[in-house]
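Chapter summary example: a protein plus glyoxylic acid.
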Amino acid sequence: PIHESHSHSVSSLSVDARSLQKQIDELATFSDTPAPSVTRILYTEKDVLARRFIKNLMGLSGLSIREDAVGNIFGRWEGSEPELAAIATGSHIDAIPYSGKYDGVVGVLGAIEAINTLKRSGFKPKKSLEVILFTSEEPTRFGISCLGSRLLSGVEELAKALKTTVDGQNISFILAARSAGYAEEKDDFYSVSLKKGSYSAFVELHIEQGPILEKEGIPIGIVTAIAAPASIKVEFEGNGGHAGAVLMPNRNDAGLAAAELALAVERHVLESGSIDSVGTVGILELHPGAINSIPSKSHLEIDTRDIDEERRNIIIEKIRQSASAIAKNRGVRLTEFKIVNQDPPALSDKSIIEAMEAASKELNLTHKKMISRAYHDSLFMARVSPMGMIFIPCYKGYSHKPEEYASIENISNGVKVLAVTLAKLSQG
Ligand code: GLV
Ligand code: MN
Ligand code: MN
Ligand code: MN
C-alpha cells in the first residue's frame, strides 16, 4: 500500500484508461446539441441523465452517495479514521452551449477513476476520501457561476437570492431544481453550506484550458492561484421606433449604447496595461430584435477577470462610469447595472502544492507551477478547506468550444497524480 512504500505503490497504480475514455464518450452523449459539441444545462433532462450516470459509477466504485438541496453530489470512501475531516476531490459536468466534453468532466470521472485505481492497488485510506460533483459551475442558466460550490462555501446572500431567481424563460430556480429532484418543500438552500474545516483538503483535476503545458511538453500543471472573476449585467432603454421613419437626430438607440459599451469594456481592459487583465461581452441582446425596428432595449453581460483583484476592480469602476456617460450622451436610460459577482482570487495551499509536486516526482512526470485564468469550484472550496489543483495539457489550449480535446494519456497521468496526491493527504 502507498503509505508503506512509495516505489511499490506508484508502480502498482494502473489507470483503466479504456474504461475512462468510454465513460467520457458516453457522458458526452447527454447533450442538447449534436456531437462533437456538448451542451448540458443545469436541471435539464440531459443534466439529470448525466447525474444518474455519475451516481451509478460512484455506486459501482463502492462509494456511499449523498446529495444536497441544490444537487451537489458526494461519493464517500470511508477511511479507517472516519471521524477525521475527509479529503475531497471533484469538479462539474455541466457544459456551456456548444462546448466540449472534457471541461469539468475530467475532474469528476477522473476522480472516480483515481479512487478505483487506489482501490485496485490495495490502498486503504486513513482520512475518508470524497468525490464531489458540483452543481452548475457554469453560469449558463441562472447567471450564477460556481453555484454549488458558492453555496457550500456559505455565501448566505445567494441562498436568499435563489428564492426569487428565474432563468431566461422565467422558470424559477426552485421549480427547475424540483423538476430535477432537488430543493424539496422546506429546503431553503442554507442547509447546503459546509462548516469551515469540513474537509482537510480539496484537490481538483482539470484540463488547463490554456496552451502552455502542451506547447512546453509538460504533462502536469500545478496551480498556485486562481484569477479573480467578476460579471456584470447591464441594460439600456430608449424609445425605439420605426427604422425608416424616425430620423437619425431623433433617435435614442439602446443598441448603439450597448455597442459603445462593449467597445469601452475592451478599451478599459487594455488600459490596465497588463496581459493578465481580460474582459468579454459574451451576451448582447437587442429588443425587439427586428431589422426594421430601432432597438428600444439592450442587454449585455460582461465578464472580466484578473490575477490582480484591485486592477480588476478598477476596470469594473471604469465600465460603470462609461455606462453612465454613454447613457447620458445618447439620451438612453441605464436601467440596470448589476454586479452579479465580484470574487477575489484564491491561492492554493502550500502543503497541497507540495503533495502534488511530490506525487508528480514519484510518478516521473515533469510539472510546472502555473496560475489558472479560468475559474473553478476550487475558487470557493478554498474558503472551506486548503485547496490545490492539477492541470493537464489540452489540444492548443482550446476550451468552451467543440474542438476541446485532451488525450487519454494525459488524462491518465492526471488521474495518477490525483490518486497519489489523495493517498498522501489521506495518510497525513
Ligand atoms: C468557467 O468555466 C470559466 O468561465 O472559467
Ligand atoms: Mn467551463
Ligand atoms: Mn471547468
Ligand atoms: Mn471553469
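Key point: Residues 103, 138, 400 surround manganese (II) ion (ligand 2) (CB under 6 Å).
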